[in-house]
Amino acid sequence: MAARHSPLRRNPTQSRAEATLKAIREATLRILKEEGPARLNTNRIAEVAGISIGSLYQYYADKHAIAADICNELLMSELGDIKRLDRQTLSLARDSLDSTLAFFVEEHVARHRRLYQQLKGFYLEIHWSYDFEVYSRKLYPNKPSTAEWLPSALQQHHAVLRVHDFELAAQMVVNALEGTIHATLDRNPDLILSQAFVDELQAMLVNYLKKTPTEGAPPLPEE
């Protein structure tokens, strides 16, 4: 897996710097939309943004760092909802594991959909190296990761589960979810736009975690 890119080399301290960052991001999106990802490089971004290449490198190491910052900006509206989403997820977990997984999968896929629809082919180059959860944890250090809150949710529904090591199961769920989404983006990206993909992904996780009717039934008497 590629190393995760740290978007900004330095933080803007004045309005002029903010304007430069905005121009860089807008130029990147304009090039992707009008010229395609093959034309995207730091020299072309600086040219379209109307700045020197030196000014660009004051803030970004490369085009991938710019893209990571754009991803953060595109998902920024979700940050205000993180605490609400956490509360909703934990509330659902008390009542229904199926509903919890459905909500979790839908929210996770929706983020990748948004970035793919905005960045198109370029997101397919960088999706393995961008992690929104890492970014949100920087802003909300006390926010539990999925691998941290999911074991307690599984514990509440242990009677219907086939798994017994809840921490391992939680990590398997996270890995299966992220791995399937990323593999789909590599091989058939438009599939993540369909509700059928979300439904099948949820069913895969539920089938891994929960007992089948025969697993929960008492053994048949011997004849």
TrEMBL record:
The HTH tetR-type domain, residue ranges: 18-78
Top-level taxon in the UniProt lineage: Bacteria
DNA-binding region of this protein: 41-60
Keyword terms, alphabetized: DNA-binding, Transcription, Transcription regulation
Entry keyword Transcription regulation: yes
Keyword Transcription regulation (UniProt): yes
Transmembrane segment boundaries: none
Database matches in InterPro entries: Homeodomain-like_sf, HTH-type_TetR-like_transc_reg, HTH_TetR, TetR_C_15
A UniProt-annotated Pfam family: TetR_N
UniProt signal peptide: none
MF terms (GO), sorted A to Z: DNA-binding transcription factor activity; transcription cis-regulatory region binding
Designated name of the protein: HTH tetR-type domain-containing protein
Organism: Thauera terpenica 58Eu
